[in-house]
Amino acid sequence: GPLSRAARLLGALPAAPARDAALIGLLDRLTGLRTPAAAQPRRLPATGRAVAFFAGCASRELLPGPQRRLLDLLSASGIDVTIPDRQTCCGALATHTGRPERAHAQQSVNVAALSVEAGGAGALLVEAAGCALELSGYPAPIAGAVTDVTVYLGDMPLPPLREVPLRVAYHDPCHARHGRGIVDEPRGLLHRIPGLEVLEPDEAEVCCGSGGAYALLHPELSEDMGLRKAGFMAQTGAELVLTSNPGCLGQISDALARIAPDLPVLPLTDLVWYAALSVTPIK
User: Fold this and answer.
1) What is the pLDDT of residues 67-93, one digit of tens each?
2) Predicted TM-score (pTM) above 0.85
3) Residues 265 and 207: beta-carbon distance below 8 Å
4) ∠ Cα 159 233 201 (to 5°)
5) What are phi and psi of 133, to 5 degrees?
C-alpha cells in the first residue's frame, strides 16, 4: 500500500528499540552526528499540564514507532498523557469513501470514549492532521478540545534540543493548512531546533494527492499530484522531507521513491524527538 515504503523507512516492525535505532541511524547519517544507542530525551519536571491523546487508526496500526516516540517526547516534556480506552477510527476515511453510517457509528463510539477525558484535560491531542479535522466537527467538548500536535508542541517547553545541521522541507497536509488554518505553527516548531534550515517548496499550498481516500478513488490523478509535489520537494535541495499526516507521508514517500529515492520522508515529530535525544548517556 502507499504507506509501505514509509513504514519500512521508519522501521515499523515488532521491536521498539530496533525502530528507534533505524531512525537514529538514518538521521545520524544525514546530519553527521553520533548518537549513543541508549540515548533518551532529557526529561523536564512534571508541569501539571495534562492532555488526552487520540491514537487514530493509520498512525497506531501502520506507524506505531512515530506515535510511541511522540508519547515519549510528551512525557519527557513533563506532560501527563491519558490515552482514553475504547476509542476507534475518527470516521474520516468512512466519510471520504461514502459510508456516512459507518462514520456516524465511529463518531458515537468516540464521543462516549473521549468526552470526559477531553473535557477534563482541556486538550485532545491529535497526531494526524486528517483526524484533527474530522474530530473538530464532533460535538462539544471534543471539538473545542482538538489540538494539532504541531500546535501543542510549539506552545510548550521542550527538553533541551541539540543542534541538528540539516536542510528540511515541510509539506503542509491540506487538512491542517486549508481545513484548520495551521501554517506557521509547524515551521515555528522546526525553527526551535538549532542548526535546522527550513526550506519552502514551490506550490506549498497544493495537495499532495493523498486527500483522505482520494488516492483510492482517483489513483491516476493522485499519482500525478504526488509526483508533482515530490518534484518540488526535491528541487528545494532539502536532505529530508517532513509532514504531519500518515496519508501525506505515504504519498510523498512513494513518489520520491521514483524520482529522488535518496530523499527520505519522516513525521515532523520524529525529528523533534531526535533533537531532544541526549548525546551523553543518561544515568
Assistant:
1) 999 999 999 999 999 999 899 999 988
2) yes
3) no
4) 80
5) -65, -45
